[in-house]
Design brief:
Length: 87
């Protein structure tokens, strides 16, 4: 496993992991419509913006020609983004 600083060019791979993990993890918990409407493009744009202004660590594992990426984010809350609350 390689740990390195994420770059804006990593946004596409991070967005794919982000959307796919939400769809898998929250299936049956969050509405199917919400999960189906998650957008790779919107997540990529959001990550590209985040990575252009902040340094984040990225754990990268190459396995069977697939690159798995796991961004490490600080537990900062952004005021203009609603927080998910369950229960």
């Amino acid at each position: 496993m390689i740990i390195r600083k994420a770059q804006p060019t990593d946004a596409n791979a991070i967005a794919k992991v982000h959307v796919d993990s939400w769809r898998t993890t929250y299936a049956g918990i969050i509405s199917a419509d919400f999960l189906a409407n998650l957008s790779y493009e919107q997540r990529e744009a959001s990550w590209r913006e985040t990575l252009s202004v902040r340094e984040l660590n990225l754990c990268q594992k190459i396995h069977s020609l697939k690159c798995l990426v796991i961004p490490s984010r600080q537990d900062e809350r952004v005021a203009d983004r609603p927080q998910l609350r369950l229960g």
